[in-house]
């Protein structure tokens, strides 16, 4: 078992990471470019569904061909078309037109359509490859993290993505819990810990009790629609309003322009974590420059409504855990958005930290801590080591599970914050003589009416022996497993033979569908690993060569010096030969050399693309439509437009 | 704590064939399929209602360390499934027993009593001795709902809240006394006394549930919300 490596993966809205336990410490495995964070961006590079790039290279394609690129796909995982109206106003997802309510979403990329799980599978596969490159050995098992507040369908979709990527997902771990594990490794602490996790798209709060190596989650709460993205969208709305007000120029439908503004506001936002003032600066389509001063004070006023929305879940979690803020011994900060000073101040206020001479924990990189914790859990599942000896995680289900009873009322069968695995048994019968089917509607949520909860599944109990109405006694067992995923089994007890009842869920992907979506390149999982690496190296060579062949058609090519161009052509010729006949290492070295030589060209091209995009090209298809985003009242001085 | 009424049935271990009576085989250590057990039996406890929750927690942790699915990630699919079922049984049992009210309700159900369903949405009748207070409270709540949020009304409601919270605390104290009665009758095997204490507990739980709902309604009115649980 020692050589079987189980990795920990943080599949994030904005960035994803893979980590593993090296000796006594979890470490993040960097990508090929040496960077730990892999942007959760997927781009289709060829016409067929097989050539994809992920991460920074996909992000580059975002400017050139946004219709072939997807980011923030985590927002769509396990959701139906009826759930994502708000998302579609703010994010440039291009949905297939013919998706019915309750069906799995399909996103258009070029001419093709993909489910969110398939897109996520590409990210997972990239992380798997990064790990395999690092180990020089195959990786087939992983622990993957999800927001604590993810519902059953979102968890199932994440697990499906793993399978499509050729990874057996041994466990889904809640992100805040994973963070607690990462922190708990170094400090053999006891006490009550709150984990405040504000990421790009989701917010979670978990309260844990640490005792003798047991990490017992006692309450969790959150909001799966709250994160740094919301802050960005507010700032973008302000910039768009300014530009429209001053220049009468409505850029809302111009995806490239909005993309450029998004980039600029994010930079300004990040700068404000360390500076007291920053500046949003964007080149506009008409050649003018939009600039505005953004003092931290004004920024904090703007984002207050967003970050204040984290208070309610915190208070509810404290209440559910039956603890007061004073009983919280430590607060752990997770997620990039916790770098914002106002967010730190808010946690101080909610948990009365400074007043008690305490500070929130920010020692571990908030972008990496979840992946590190996933690696710790992977180590525990793999049999543990000295570092994780005696560590055991007891997590909870974030939402109550219920069934729709007469009149649309919800009968709760498993309460939120129940330790998982958890189960409940219910009995059903028939209402009509000879009835052989009974439909059960399972919902997740805290509201009293089924229509106000998240519909999880409609199960059809089939094959009930025909009997008089009310006579069958069907026992249905609901079991939430350690991943937070629901399993339902049923049997009829009256007919004497305890007939097994077929349980058919009517949501998500079927096993067969998942099977058919397993990424094709995994056909050679059985093949020699070296051969697979060679194929990958050739594919990478192919990608860069294609780009170089197209280069002379680009204006940026003319900006290169004669020497630079000669150098690129020479290296490309060399790679072309090696690609057909060379060894893997030779191909990789040559690819790397060509990549290095073309780096300046790529930069020039991107700059040009940004300005030309803003130069009035109209966006095809859905575009990044900010929809009915309200005009944001803000405390700014007027912008400068030069 | 003494072990009594343990309901486990002896079967043969699926792996080594030795006799097993718990979740794990004593001979080879393999996890066994979960058997139907009541929650007290899961923790090898008699059906007594006074119990030390610290001891219960320690036992919960001890069982979790042996049965949790995290420890079975490398075993066969069947063993993983059994570990999940065994752990869910331990979790379900711990959840029911650690909470005084849930524990009492569970015992009464186990003893064949019908517990008032909370989920039917039916309005309960107020306890006779509270009729007057409840009538007055409902008037005040109605006034509050009509928008009459004046300081006098608010302070009346605050007072009512205090009064009903005191009722709730009294009910909890009374319940603890009934536990002692049940535990005593159980130890002596006095079936008549057992029946009597069960009836008393049932009545007390009904009353308590009624008062708790009143407190919840008053709190909701004071917070300016409807009585519904918070939206996730």
UniProtKB/TrEMBL annotation, chain A:
Which Gene Ontology MF annotations are present? ATP binding; ATP hydrolysis activity; ATP-dependent protein folding chaperone; unfolded protein binding
* Sorted UniProt keywords: ATP-binding, Chaperone, Nucleotide-binding
Keyword Amino-acid biosynthesis: yes or no? no
- Tell me one GO biological process term: iron-sulfur cluster assembly
Is Membrane found in the keyword set?
Answer: no
| Record SUPFAM superfamilies | Actin-like ATPase domain (SSF53067), Heat shock protein 70kD (HSP70), C-terminal subdomain (SSF100934), Heat shock protein 70kD (HSP70), peptide-binding domain (SSF100920)
- Which N-terminal residues, if any, form the signal peptide? none
| Coiled-coil residues | none
Checking NCBIfam families in the record gives: HscA, PRK00290.1, PRK05183.1
Family label: Belongs to the heat shock protein 70 family.
Tell me what this protein is called.
Answer: Chaperone protein HscA
Q: Which organism is it from?
A: Acidipila rosea
> What taxonomic lineage is listed for the species of origin?
Bacteria, Pseudomonadati, Acidobacteriota, Terriglobia, Terriglobales
From TrEMBL, chain B:
The domain of life for this entry's organism is: Bacteria
Molecular-function GO terms, alphabetical: ATPase activator activity; protein-folding chaperone binding
Q: Which residues form a coiled coil?
A: none
Q: For this chain's UniProt record, which GO biological process terms are given?
A: [2Fe-2S] cluster assembly
Domain J as annotated: residue spans? 38-110
InterPro entries the UniProt entry points to? DnaJ_domain, HscB, J_dom_sf
Residues spanning the signal sequence: none
Role: Co-chaperone involved in the maturation of iron-sulfur cluster-containing proteins. Seems to help targeting proteins to be folded toward HscA.
Return the protein name: Co-chaperone protein HscB
């Amino acid at each position: 078992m020692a050589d079987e490596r189980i990795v920990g993966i943080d599949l994030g809205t904005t960035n994803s990471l893979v980590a593993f336990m090296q000796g006594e410490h979890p470490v993040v495995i960097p990508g090929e470019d040496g960077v730990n964070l892999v942007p959760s961006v997927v781009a289709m590079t060829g016409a067929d569904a097989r050539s994809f790039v992920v991460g920074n290279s996909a992000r580059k394609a975002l400017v050139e061909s946004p219709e072939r690129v997807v980011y923030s796909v985590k927002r769509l995982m396990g959701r139906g078309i009826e759930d994502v109206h708000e998302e579609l106003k703010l994010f440039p997802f291009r949905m297939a037109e013919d998706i019915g309510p309750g069906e799995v979403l399909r996103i258009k990329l070029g001419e093709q359509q993909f489910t969110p799980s398939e897109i996520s599978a590409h990210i997972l596969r990239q992380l798997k490859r990064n790990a395999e490159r690092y180990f020089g050995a195959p990786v087939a098992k992983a622990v993957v993290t999800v927001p604590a507040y993810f519902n059953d369908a979102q968890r199932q979709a994440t697990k499906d993505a793993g399978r499509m990527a050729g990874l057996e997902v041994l466990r889904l771990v809640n992100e805040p819990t994973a963070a607690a594990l990462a922190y708990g490794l170094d400090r053999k602490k006891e006490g009550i810990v709150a984990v405040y996790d504000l990421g790009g798209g989701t917010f979670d709060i978990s309260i844990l009790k640490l005792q003798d190596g047991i990490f017992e989650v006692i309450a969790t709460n959150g909001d799966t629609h709250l994160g740094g993205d919301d802050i960005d969208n507010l700032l973008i709305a302000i910039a768009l309003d300014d530009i429209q007000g001053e220049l009468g120029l409505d850029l809302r439908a111009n995806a490239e322009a909005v993309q450029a503004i998004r980039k600029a506001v994010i930079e300004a936002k990040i700068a404000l974590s360390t500076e007291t003032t920053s500046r949003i600066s964007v080149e506009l389509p008409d050649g003018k420059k939009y600039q505005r001063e953004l003092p931290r004070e004004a920024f904090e006023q703007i984002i207050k409504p967003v970050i204040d929305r984290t208070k309610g879940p915190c208070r509810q979690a404290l209440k559910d855990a039956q603890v007061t803020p004073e009983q919280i011994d430590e607060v752990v900060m997770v997620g990039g958005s916790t770098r914002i000073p106002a967010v730190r101040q808010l946690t101080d206020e909610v948990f009365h930290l400074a007043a008690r001479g305490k500070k929130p924990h920010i020692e571990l990189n908030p972008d990496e801590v979840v992946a590190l914790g996933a690696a710790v859990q992977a180590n525990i599942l793999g049999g543990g080591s000295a570092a994780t000896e005696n560590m055991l995680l007891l997590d909870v289900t974030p939402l109550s599970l219920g069934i729709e009873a007469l009149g649309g009322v919800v009968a709760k069968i498993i309460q939120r914050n129940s330790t998982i695995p958890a189960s409940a048994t219910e009995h059903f019968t028939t209402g009509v003589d000879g009835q052989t089917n009974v439909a059960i509607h399972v919902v997740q949520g805290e509201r009293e009416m089924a229509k106000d909860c998240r519909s999880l599944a409609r199960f059809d109990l089939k094959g009930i022996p025909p009997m008089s109405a009310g006579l069958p006694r069907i026992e249905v067992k609901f079991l939430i497993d350690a991943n937070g995923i629901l399993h339902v089994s049923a049997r009829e007890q009256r007919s004497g033979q305890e007939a097994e009842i077929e349980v058919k869920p009517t949501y998500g992907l079927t096993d067969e569908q998942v099977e058919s979506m397993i990424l094709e390149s995994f056909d050679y999982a059985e093949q020699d690993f070296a051969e697979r690496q060679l194929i990958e190296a050739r594919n990478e060579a192919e990608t860069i060569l294609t780009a170089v062949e197209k280069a002379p058609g680009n204006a940026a090519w003319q900006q290169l010096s004669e020497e630079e161009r000669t150098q690129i052509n020479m290296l490309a010729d060399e790679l072309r030969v090696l690609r057909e006949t060379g060894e893997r290492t030779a191909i990789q070295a040559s690819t790397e050399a060509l990549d290095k030589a073309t780096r300046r060209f790529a930069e020039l091209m991107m700059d040009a693309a940004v300005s030309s995009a803003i130069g009035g090209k109209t966006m095809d298809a859905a575009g990044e439509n900010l929809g009915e985003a309200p005009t944001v009242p803000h405390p700014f001085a007027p912008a400068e437009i030069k | 704590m003494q072990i009594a009424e343990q309901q486990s049935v002896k079967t043969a271990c699926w792996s080594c064939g030795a006799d097993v009576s718990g979740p794990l085989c004593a001979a080879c250590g393999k996890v066994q399929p979960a058997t139907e057990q009541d929650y007290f039996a899961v923790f090898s406890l008699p059906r007594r209602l006074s119990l030390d929750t610290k001891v219960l927690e320690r036992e919960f942790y001890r069982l979790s360390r042996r049965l949790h699915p995290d420890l079975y990630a490398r075993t066969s699919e069947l063993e993983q499934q059994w570990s999940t079922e065994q752990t869910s049984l331990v979790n379900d049992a711990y959840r029911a027993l650690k909470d005084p009210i849930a524990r009492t309700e569970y015992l009464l159900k186990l003893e064949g009593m019908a517990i008032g369903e909370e989920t039917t949405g039916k309005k309960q009748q107020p306890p006779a001795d509270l009729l007057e207070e409840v009538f007055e409270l409902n008037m005040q709540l109605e006034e509050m709902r009509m928008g009459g949020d004046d300081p006098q009304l608010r302070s009346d409601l605050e007072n009512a809240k205090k009064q009903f919270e005191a009722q709730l605390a009294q009910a909890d104290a009374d319940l603890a006394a009934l536990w002692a009665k049940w535990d005593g009758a159980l130890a002596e095997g006095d079936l008549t006394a057992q029946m009597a204490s069960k009836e008393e507990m049932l009545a007390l739980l009904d009353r308590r549930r009624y008062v708790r709902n009143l407190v919840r309604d008053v709190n909701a009115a004071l917070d300016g919300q409807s009585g519904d649980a918070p939206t996730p």
